[in-house]
TrEMBL record:
Domain Rab-GAP TBC span(s) in chain numbering: 103-463
Stretches with biased composition (Acidic residues): 234-243
Region named Disordered: 161-279
Biased composition (Low complexity): 176-191
Name by which UniProt lists this protein: Rab-GAP TBC domain-containing protein
Length: 549
């Protein structure tokens, strides 16, 4: 069809398509000015729609922007989220969205965290949770009894027999990770250890520093098998609990298929019946020494956030320390002794629970906020297990998990800001090793205590949503905001680097300078601005960044 225009009397336009038709009839009586305006308007509308489509995703307000930020989940709202039999409504969707957009009121964190960290299923009833609670208390106590057996052997060996030969007699390990390779990784992470120490503990004057030197430090442990005096946990009375009926939850199937779960049995009852050889006594002795050093050196930032533990009596603190064989704490105030004892008890239990990881310096950083909020040791332990389900990769001896995460941060920066990435390449810093500390301890050193908790709660809500199968479809109901992601932390880390792009581009000419800048961010970051920027990165780059482990 050929369309031609011819002028006609009266100023109209005639289109010839070989026989008239629609166009001819439409435009014969249409003045040229009106036709031009109409086509221009259509073209403008189409262009505007295209621009809107391409830019709307980037301009979506995140739940953490100043205009959209909501209040934290309150006790009243928390209660309203449950049905009469104690099940979270709508599978926990509303609950997770609320936590994700505003965090949690401090007074209910101890109740909420077990749901976020997978201790309780989002479809469980009150009755089912009571069964699980009792069951997990017994499981935790089994780990503690095994720890006490190890400590008893170590204590007996220190009195005469060579510690190493005595411990080796207790069984051969099933894992092939010797203490020397472990010490190599510990040495590589010296910066984490030194920064973790309290300001009032000097390297050379700290009496507990000898424990790291291997001078029979394990002999510092006392025989705690006779009486478990950790009054904060339920070590002494768990054996009196009634027989527990094994409860099955809908989350077990998902956990078995989750690559981030340390072992197939994860939190099943059979996981507690560890064969003694599954955790080498020699490895445990190494972990025990380092755990005690880190526990005693833990800072006091947590004290304002746990008034009940801050006012613990000296007698109770000493009993807790005696129960785990903690020594050399005379320079600490009672609340810090009590905190250190709880760190020791739970970290030792975790080393038995997950002997592939055992203990590495930095893990105490992750546990400290948990025991500040959760006052029962067995609950705190299982919350920590849930936290470590993903974070455990940060502490593997081969550091595969760390390298994978640094690679993702590098990809995010490359996709978002090619100019900055090319500058990092020139400095041979494109591997983003300068954010190593942020990755290992999940921003614990760069944010204040409260900011850290806020960030972790949002991150846990994302991970809980993924475990529960709440994906893009459910999240689309809140205006197509960023979908839940396992790697929100990495987007936040990339955002923190991008916030410093001008400084990095104009003033820094070496990796060391960037590293110092990243390490000096402590107390300077706005966690909500960080989350807002991370949200924008997730919205725009989530589909481009592959994150399978």
């Amino acid at each position: 069809m050929f369309i031609t225009s011819n002028s006609i009397p009266g100023g109209g336009i005639q289109l010839s398509d070989g026989g008239g038709g629609f166009w001819s009839e439409l435009l014969v009586a249409t003045p040229p000015s009106i036709t031009t305006v109409a086509f221009t308007a259509l073209a403008g509308t189409a262009l505007f729609a295209a621009l809107l489509y391409t830019t709307s995703r980037g301009r979506l307000k995140s739940p953490w922007s100043r205009r959209k930020r909501k209040h934290a989940l309150t006790p009243r709202q928390w209660k309203s989220l449950f049905t009469s039999d104690g099940k979270p409504r709508d599978g926990g969707v509303k609950f997770l969205k609320k936590v994700r957009s505003g965090g949690i009121d401090p007074c209910i964190r101890a109740e909420v965290w077990p749901f976020l960290l997978g201790v309780y299923d989002l479809n469980s009833s009150t009755e089912e949770r009571e069964i699980i609670r009792t069951q997990k208390r017994k499981e935790y106590e089994k780990f503690r009894r095994q720890c006490r057996r190890f400590l008893k052997r170590i204590n007996e060996c220190s009195k005469g027999t060579s510690e190493t030969s005595c411990i080796e007699d207790s069984g051969s390990p099933t894992q092939e990770s010797d203490s020397s390779s472990y010490e190599d990784v510990v040495s590589a992470r010296e910066s984490l250890s030194s920064e973790e120490r309290s300001p009032d503990v000097e390297d050379s004057d700290d009496p507990s520093s000898a424990l790291l030197e291997g001078d029979d430090g394990s002999g510092q442990a006392t025989n705690t098998d006779a009486s478990a005096l950790n009054t904060e946990s339920s070590d002494s009375d768990s054996s009196e609990d009634p027989e527990v009926i094994q409860a099955s939850s809908s989350s077990e199937g998902r956990e078995e298929n989750d690559p981030d779960v340390p072992l197939k049995e994860n939190i099943s009852p059979s996981r507690t019946d560890l064969h003694p050889n599954q955790c080498s006594g020699e490895n445990f002795a190494t972990w025990q020494r380092i755990i005690r050093v880190d526990a005693v050196r833990a800072n006091s930032e947590w004290i304002p956030y746990s008034p009940s533990q801050a006012t613990v009596s000296e007698l109770r603190a000493c009993r807790a320390a005696e129960a785990v064989g903690l020594k050399d704490y005379d320079h600490l105030e009672p609340c810090r002794v009590f905190h250190a004892a709880r760190l020791v008890a739970i970290l030792e239990a975790y080393a038995v629970y997950d002997p592939e990881i055992g203990y590495c310096q930095g893990m105490s950083d992750l546990l400290s906020p948990i025991i500040t909020v959760v006052t029962e040791d067995h609950e705190a332990f299982w919350c920590f297990v849930g936290f470590m389900r993903k974070a455990r990769h940060n502490f593997r001896l081969d550091e595969v998990g760390i390298r994978r995460q640094l690679n993702i941060v590098s990809k995010i920066i490359k996709c978002k800001d090619s100019h900055l990435y090319r500058h990092l390449e020139k400095l041979q810093a494109e591997d983003c090793f300068f954010v190593y500390r942020m990755v290992v301890v999940l921003f614990r050193r760069e944010l204040t205590f409260e900011q850290t908790i806020c960030l972790w709660e949002v991150m846990w809500a994302d991970q809980a949503a993924i475990r529960a199968g709440i994906g893009k479809s459910a999240w689309s109901r809140i205006r197509q905001r960023a979908p839940p992601t396992e790697d929100l932390l990495l987007y936040a880390i990339a955002a923190s680097v991008l916030q410093k792009r001008k400084l990095i581009l104009e003033k820094y000419s070496s990796t060391d300078e960037i590293l110092r800048e990243c390490n000096s961010m402590s107390g300077q970051l706005d966690v909500w601005k960080l989350l807002d920027d991370a949200h924008n990165l997730v919205v725009n780059l989530h589909d481009k960044i592959e994150t399978p482990f």
